[in-house]
Amino acid sequence: MKRFGLLMLVLFFQNTYSQVIETTRVLNIDPAKSTIRTRFQPPKGFSWVNEQPGSFSEFLSNFPLHPPNLPVRDFTKIPVDQQNHHAALLKITVGEKDLQQCADAWIRLYAEYLWLHKKFDDIGFEFTDGQFFAWDDYKIGFRTKEVRKKVSFVKTKISDDSYEGFQKYLEVIFRYAGTISLNEESVPVTNNADIRSGDFLIKPGSPGHSVIIVGVARNQAGKKLYILAESYMPAQDVHILVNHKSPQISPWYELDIDAPQTVTAKYIFKPTSIKRFHALQ
Question: InterPro entries in the record, alphabetically (predicted)?
């Protein structure tokens, strides 16, 4: 019986060790590839989720990336102090003002998606005070007027439906919207199986923070992993986050809506709050 028990113990450790060897490997990151989906291969046993064609999720997972090894720069084009938190930079401008920060990065990406698909009537966001400002109003001449920290809308003779005008409209949104308003315009994701690209982790506040889910992989058992992106303060390049806590799967993250906290490269969301913009339900 002693020999049998010893044999079973040896077999147990051999089997366990072989499982670890089989499921652990260096992740394949191909710097020659130019999109999120093509540059970052999921860990062994996982594969990219096929997003619905034309969806915001598909738009994000196929978003173009800058060439590798570029530093994250702020809105003045100066590299930020810490350069060990990103795996890639999204190929999208940050502007020349300190406006496009965390929640604004999500707004920018969603607005660009709507613009690309000519869904102009759907472009509109709330300010932190609850007022709604649509692109349709801006392009026919409505502008904001701020008096004693109160914002109102005035009709001018200026009309502009150009892409350059659209960027100026977004600057207005970035100035008056943020994590508080984005949180109010969104609904909680209540099931882990429902988390998808385009959802975001968020902590509303002044300051608060948000991180965007830009890629999803799944294994045969249904377990999912996620790629996260963010901007920060000061306004800076939108970048893919590395996973310091689990470097063996970086830049992929595990997410759980019931977790008491979620640790990302530069921020701890406590509690975990994953939400979806109301128009994307």
Answer: DUF4846
In one letter, which amino acid is 182? Answer: L
Q: Which residues contact 100 (CB under 8 A, 6 or more apart)?
A: 75, 94, 108, 174, 231, 235
The owner of tokens 């377990």 is: 223
Average pLDDT, the chain: 91
59-78 per-position pLDDT tens digit? 999 999 999 999 999 999 99
Band the pLDDT of 28: cuts 50, 70, 90: low
pTM: 0.89
Question: pLDDT class for 29, splitting at 50, 70, 90?
Answer: confident
The SS3 call for residue 58 is helix
Contacts 24+ apart (CB under 8 A), 35-39: 35/61, 35/62, 35/63, 35/64, 35/65, 36/60, 36/61, 36/62, 36/63, 36/65, 36/88, 36/90, 36/214, 36/215, 36/227, 36/240, 37/61, 37/62, 37/215, 39/65, 39/88
Torsion of CA 121, 124, 130, 131, to 10 degrees: -70
Instruction: Please report the sign of the dihedral spanned by the C-alpha atoms of residue 51, residue 54, residue 57, residue 58.
Output: positive
pLDDT digit string, tens, across residues 189-205: 999 999 999 999 999 99
Own/partner long-range contacts of 267-273 (Cβ < 8 Å, ≥24 apart): 267/203, 267/209, 267/211, 267/230, 269/201, 269/202, 269/203, 269/209, 269/211, 270/203, 272/201, 273/188, 273/201, 273/202, 273/203
Long-range contacts of 112-115 (CB under 8 A, 24+ apart): 113/56, 113/59, 113/60, 115/163, 115/166
**Helix, coil or strand: residue 276:** strand
Q: Which two tokens stand for residue 51?
A: 């997003």
